Amino acid sequence: MTEERGLPEVAWFGALCDDDYEFLGVADPTLAASFEHCRDIALAAEASGFDSILLPSGYSLGIDPVAFAAGVAPILERLQPLVAVRLGELWVPQLARQLASLDQMLGGRLLVNIISSDLPGQQLASEPRYRRTLEILTVLRALLAGRDVSFHGEFVDLELAPPRIATATASCPPFYFGGLSPAAREVAAQGADVYLMWPDTLPAVAAIVSDLQARAAAHGRTLRFGYRVHVIVRETESEAREAARRLVSRLDDDTGAAIRGRSLDTASAGVARQGELRDGADDDGYVEDTLWTGIGRGRSGAGAAIVGDPDQVRGKLDAYRALGVDSFILSGYPHLDECHRVARLVLDDYPHAPLYANRAVHGVGPR
């Protein structure tokens, strides 16, 4: 590890979008998204030493992440919710008030995952949708930092003072954002603090980091880099590979396709890339040492897992670290059980600490 770069941020995944299984594709009512089930995952992540937890958002799936984060705020002492917000669904002044209020409730621990979404029931072509996203990000950052807004754009036209309620530090929480298309990368370069990637091979990750660094530098900015991936870890590699096979042992192709089709981002460049990885994998589903794509047969979005023993998993994380990644969002099925397992087998010997625990450094990262 390179100590001068600081310690990595390690997050767990809150299964708010009906994405929790013992056997992938086999619905289990006890694992369906509910306040109680997702609350237990969040509490387990905090107790297990994770720094933060991603609270995902899907219009037609599961429960609302902003409402959920408000519900668990009083019972979380340290964990930082990374709350996904779908920018196409909320008017930006309303969203600013919600996020500022939520950050107050969390004592300044809010992180924000930006999703460039459509309005449900409507569809905007990719490039104009990303132009709208950048306008919203620009205005949202100003309002959350307590600044007046005078913005006259293609999609947002506002002359507005910030809401009275401010974030706990009167500064904007970090924005996490991902997307592979050129338009998405430009939004990240200009408006994000952390660029999030889905699973990919090490050479591909290196190329993405290099490209985004250059794009951000062209705008006088720098980015941090995050990596969202599933983990299947066991005491031995053979046990981990057997757990991977078991996870998809009851999944048929039609069910997998139906699950992937429920997502609103099925035509995105990122989803297409996950499909390419599956197509390029070996007969066991491995596209690279320890990187297994079988999990993408039964879910949209992040579609690969690091599979191996504890040293192999930590080694893979360190390989991404060497490429410039310093934030990891991990998950595993079922999420409550695997939260404890990953913490015990991986985190107990893996350097990590809350990067934003000291709110005096909340403003680290580009503005």
Supply Rg. Answer: 19 Å
Instruction: State the CATH superfamily name.
Output: Luciferase-like domain
- The fold-level CATH name is TIM Barrel
Portion in beta strands: 15-25%
Averaging pLDDT over every residue, what do you get? 89
Tell me the helix content.
25-40%
**Structural category:** alpha/beta
Shape: globular
What topology, given as strand order, has the largest sheet? 1-2-3-4-7-8-9-13
CATH class: Alpha Beta
Assembly of the depicted chains: single chain
Low-confidence spans: 353-367
Can you write the helix and strand succession as a string? Answer: EHEHEHEHEEEHEHEHHHEEEHEH
Number of separate helices: 11
Instruction: Specify the CATH architecture.
Output: Alpha-Beta Barrel
- What's the total number of strands? 13
Structure described in brief:
The protein has helices at residues 35-47, 65-72, 92-105, 126-144, 182-191, 202-218, 237-247, 253-261, 269-279, 310-323, 335-345; strands at 9-13, 52-55, 80-86, 111-115, 149-152, 157-160, 175-178, 194-197, 224-233, 286-288, 291-292, 305-308, 327-331.
